[in-house]
Amino acid sequence: MKIGLLVAGPLPEELVKQFGTFDDMFKALLLKQEPSLTFASYDVYEDNFPEDTKDCDGWIVTGSLHSAYEKLPWMIRLEAFIREAIKADQPTIGICFGHQIMATAMGGVVEKAPSGKWGAAVHTYKISLNDRERPAWMNGDGETFALQASHQDQVTVLPESGCLIAGNEFCPNGMIAYGKAGLSLQLHPELSSGIVETMLHKRRGTAMTEQDADVALSHVNDPVDADRVAQWMMLFFHQSWDRKPV
Fold first, then answer.
1. Cα angle: 198, vertex 109, 186; to 5 degrees
2. What is the residue-level pLDDT of the chain in tens, covering all 246 positions?
3. Residue 215: CB partners within 8 Å, gap ≥ 6?
4. Which end of the chain is more exposed for a tag (fewer CB within 10 A), N or C?
5. Is the dihedral of CA 167, 192, 97, 38 positive or negative?
6. Sheet of 175-178, strands arranged across
7. Where is the Glutamine amidotransferase domain (predicted)?
8. HSE (side-chain half, CA atoms, 13 Å) at 58
9. pTM score of the predicted model
10. What is the sign of the dihedral through the CA atoms of 149, 155, 161 and 165?
11. How far apart are CA 67 and CA 62, in angstroms?
């Protein structure tokens, strides 16, 4: 299986030197689940797009320092690509900014959190579907899951075509499915505690109050379910890929 990484923005160089690129992080996350995976990367923030939604078997839209409501030309093109991929049953997963741009592509609304605060460090989401309602790729697995967060924007209006899967009080629309080919998540399965801790120290006293940053830092090393969510991602990719005619 070949996964296309739609990279929606670069990380600051000092973070890349310590922790790698978004590409590196997603590859490390998913290769633990399926070592035979191959990848192709496209810097969509520089208008570098695949020629066709079928160039890869599945797609991941990464995080970004941009906001989905900026509506830059490459974002409008990315929204169109997402809609086309979902319509063509090409499994597409959005993470953080990817979650938000998928929502705007499908008719939802993204804004800054009503509180004005950041979602940062480990957050826990409650799954809103009962066992019978859950999609097969979730494996009926648990009532909650925890991952690193790093966002101020969030999906405030759920698209009509979206099925809410999970969220919490800070971010109610935290995980959304769009039929069998679209899936998005505000949290970050690919981020380590180290990179989030580094970002929190940089934001402390600037983008975040010292008090808010310190609260987040106290939870940055809480346990996470990154491997479980990575397994969900792979099952989601296979659910669409395996059912296509040969």
1. 35
2. 999 999 999 999 999 999 999 999 999 999 999 999 999 999 999 999 999 999 999 999 999 999 999 999 999 999 999 999 999 999 999 999 999 999 999 999 999 998 889 999 999 999 998 888 888 899 777 899 999 999 999 999 999 999 999 999 999 999 999 999 999 999 999 999 999 999 999 999 999 999 999 999 999 999 999 999 999 999 999 986 544 433
3. none
4. C
5. negative
6. 38-43, 2-7, 58-61, 92-95, 182-185, 175-178, 163-167, 119-127, 144-151
7. 49-195
8. 25
9. 0.95
10. positive
11. 12
Query: In CATH, what number does 2-112+153-191+225-241 get?
Result: 3.40.50.880
Apex 226 CA angle, 23 and 140, nearest 5? 125
CA distances from residue 42 to 50, 97, 191 in whole angstroms, order as listed = 7, 16, 20
